[in-house]
Amino acid sequence: MSKVLVSAACHAIANIAHFIAVALATRAFFDYLASDKIDMQQSVEKIAFLVCTMVIVSIFKQQAMHLGFRLGCYVKSAFLTMIYEKSLKIKSTGYKSIGEFVNLCSNDATRLYEASFFVCGAFFGPFQLLAGAIYLGFYFGKSAIIGSSVFLLHLPLSILLGRLYARKRRSVMKHSDERVKMVTEAVTFVKLIKMYAWEMPFAKKIFGLRSKERNSIQSMAFIEAFGLTLAYCLSYMAPVITIISAVYLEEEITVAKTFTMLTIFGIASSAMGFFQQGLRTGSELVVTLKRLEAFMNLEERKIGYEEPSNEDDVIELQKASFCWNNPDKTNTENSCVQEDQTLSVTEDATLLNQKDNDPQIKVLSQLHLTVKKKSLIGVCGPVGSGKSSLLMALLHEMEQLEGVCNVSKSIAYVPQQPWIMNDTLRENVLLGLPYHKERFDMICGACALDKDISDMESGDLTEIGERGINLSGGQKQRLSLARALYSDKELYLLDDPLSAVDAHVGLHIFDECIQNALRVKTVVMVTHQLQYLKDCDYVVYMKNGCFVEQGTYQDLMTNDQEFAAEIKKYTKEYENDEDNETNNAETKPHVTTGEVPSMHDDEKEKNEGPCGDEEEQKLLEKGKITSAEHKSQGAVTMGTYVTFFNYCGGFIAFFLILLTNSGGVILQIVSDYWLSYWIKNKDFSQFSNINPLVNISNTSNNLSSTIKDIDTEYYMTVYCIIAACMLLVTFASCFITVVILLRGSTLLHNAVFKALFNATMEFFDTTPSGRILNCLSKDVDEIDSYLPGKMIAAIRFFTRGFGYLFFIGVAIPWFLIPFFFICIAFLLLNHIFRKTIRAVKRIENVSRSPVFSHLSTTLQGLTSIRTFQKERHFIKLFRLHLDKNINALFYFGVSQRWYGLNMDFLCHACTLITAILVIAMRDYIPASVGALCVSYAMLSTGRLQFAFRLIADVEARFTSVERLLYYIRSVKPEDAGVCKNKTEPKTKENWPQNGCIEFEGVSLRYRDHLPFVLKETTFSINDKEKIGIVGRTGAGKSSITVAMYRLVNPSSGTIRISGVDTRQLDLDTLRRELTIIPQDPVLFIGTIRYNLDPLREFDDQQLWDALQKAHIKDMVSNLPEKLESEVLENGSNFSVGERQLICLARAALRKTKILMLDEATASIDANSDSKIQDTIKESFSNCTILTIAHRLNTIMHCDRIMVMHDGKVVEFDTPLKLLSKDSKFKEIAKAANISLSANDARM
Known about the structure:
ABC1_TM_sf, about 10% strand, elongated, Rossmann fold, 6-stranded mixed beta sheet, 41 helices
């Protein structure tokens, strides 16, 4: 509060000093100038008084602006920190997407920052006007009060315009939120969008949202242009009304009075313009504060659970019921949240698509369970039964409706979809804890990560991309498990941790990690891998949000109810070989908890690493995959300006902007000239031998009689015509400039988005999403909201300032000599300032990206961060990123204030020189012209320094254009380097005729410096053949799909589909004829219909048929809106299993000849999986199917099995033949307890 008061006090002093300078110093100088006697001492005193008051004004005004700017930095920093800290506490993000959070932290934070240094000073405008009116009333007479009253009309109109502006700002923010939300989703799931060839539908939707945003901004521009025109109108009507009133009231009009009045009205006009800008900023502030209030009112997560009453218990549930929202609270957000997008997964289909105020039914009902310490609990059940919701309830992420729920506070959590940070592998495991090499290595061994780490170029210091982009699904899952182990908690909640790993690795993890390393811990494991339940101490079988059965494995099998039926169905086709687990387990060091140092001991030790700091730094650099953000050097190139104005409409658009904006200022100077001409001498002939500008004087100081002799109506008519033309041009210039620049920014935005969507996957692998979001949110907002206004002001103030000085130079030619040297100082100062402010602005632009990336990462892993109690750690990291950005912003402001103050001093030198010349040449320059020159010199002080600062600021804002153009010019498109001999159109129309696939010597790596993931891979697949692909994690299974889709172009070799080299096909044609169900199911914001059919190619019956094939029709038909039911970000209001089924329905609609399933049923229970496999055999019988699976039961029916190892096909034959001999596949089958005899009957 003290900073606000100090800033306001400086603004008050600056305004008081400004008024004194105008009202007293200017009047005294003009009176002295019009007097008959000139005394040297008095001349010095008058000039010194005039210039000193102006210097004081500049010092306090710049200090006030500096304090306001510094306050803005404090406010912005506090605002962003508050938003971030709140995001860590909210119960759920509900219907707020990551894009909306980013928009809140970019655009809204900027509005709050601006308001901090605008609003304080803006509201002194009316007081300055009131003081000026009172002073003129005493000095000039009643006519001045009549003229001043015109400004009173400005106040209510400005307030009305401010309200209209606020309404439009809300509309802009709404459309901006929607656009940024959509862009965020597109960037996050760009891989799937490319695979499905959906770039155009997404682009069209985003372009449509951008068009709506642009229309709203144009409406705001219309309001702002009208307000600015109104301000000009009133400022030019006030003097003429005052003079006309003075004539008819027969008040004395002198040169001193006239030009004092004109100067005061000029200052009042600037103050009211600043006031109007303050109202606009205040209107935006109101919108921002309401959005902030809505965000801060989101319900926070309540941690009211207590430790179990019995010390031997870890979990105590007694008649406990849970839902996602409290039905008694209507202000909370609907929250079915998934870890992947900060939302917890609801597994109860009945909750889908419910709104905030809908009555919620229980997700989990009447749960009763007591878990003892050091026990292993297995939780199973069908899709949508509430398994993941149970873990969310234990993590305090759900609303407890009734009963008792006491849980240990020491919890580690492994989510179903792993949360991976863009950091080193080591830091992903440590999560801020001290590094202990022995403990770290043992845990990595237990989680089967040791071989993966040894294969990495920089070991555990290898950088992991966003969302684990450079890791396989199994590696991400094991990394998440290692993080939990390293945290050394008492209770471990594991959500299907073995779904993404192959059978051999799964067996190793279950033995070495879950049973051995965690044997003295309590583990609750949700799983669809039913073969592990027999080793659990206690088993819970869930259905419809209830515990249907619970007890030991043997007891449940003896009861022979639903659980036993599920187990029997799962194992009926396979016989267990009890010796397999012992004989075929991978040879690894036996991990026991006793061998792992306690975290309590670890925390006391000094952090140790595998190598010295220098060597470690080299490894960090070697393992880095994220490219450094591009930062241009030097001046913004002319090419940047030319390219941008080409988007705006070319040279004509630029010329129109320049002409209309400078034309308005020229007309203003002409109107000033005509006004001075009006009130002056009626007899010009006596001055015919003098400069035309001088021939406007009156030898008499009393002009009342002269005015009466002049045709008032004539002069008033001419003045009104000039003013009307000026106002028309002013309005047109505002509106035309905004429309033209918005056209350019929209086309530029669309071009950038197209360039990004056409980029290779390598670009997305090495570019953090926060960097892209920064580009498409804040940089676009810079061009939309700031560039038009600053460009308009820069042209006007520059034209006006130099117009004033030009007038002085013509009236007093001797002024041009010292002005030449002042111009040199101007240019030198401007060169230094522009160079500085460009560099600082680029740093500020670049330093924003880590802030957005960190925010996005936090929101994606919100549940994990809270579970591991790492809020303080992540707040500290956020503040480090934020401090770098705020520091750059602060130096940006300091540079402006330094430049403004020095420019003010140079302008004061112009005023000093002008005053001296006017006094010295009094005999040659009439008093009226001298007064006008001094008045212009004083007015040029603010105009000229502001003009140069705005020009530099415009150049700084053009760094945002520069960044956008960089992506357009430098991002490598996918088709680059591909064979140019495309197929004939006739071939494209008939392709593919069959589903034959041929790989011939294909080698592939994701980037040039990385090892090959496919090595001379050769195989052939026949039409309609069903192929199962197996192999250890990292063997190259998913890389086959990457190569087929040409997400990465092979380094060598040929891929043929239906006899055609895929390099000869355009990407859209290729990808539309392939279908994939990815390992991580992806749903988009919209409706179920949109997710199934974004191109609107199918009717309702076809959609329902596809849902039927995916065995999810009943769930969708029970939703209130059915196909129009809402899907939240990442499908967070559906369970992971339900998402996979919807993705399967989406695939069924495409009806392509080739279908690829990449662990498509990993998160589905065995019963649903069996039904899905039957559907695939029936509905896709005419397709060639490639199934990548870790569940061998899903591929045992395939025609052939492909075994991958180290990027090569080591085995490729029928399941029977591979199981009949010593083979890699047989080893994998044994690890999964699948024997030959079980499959003889099938073959």
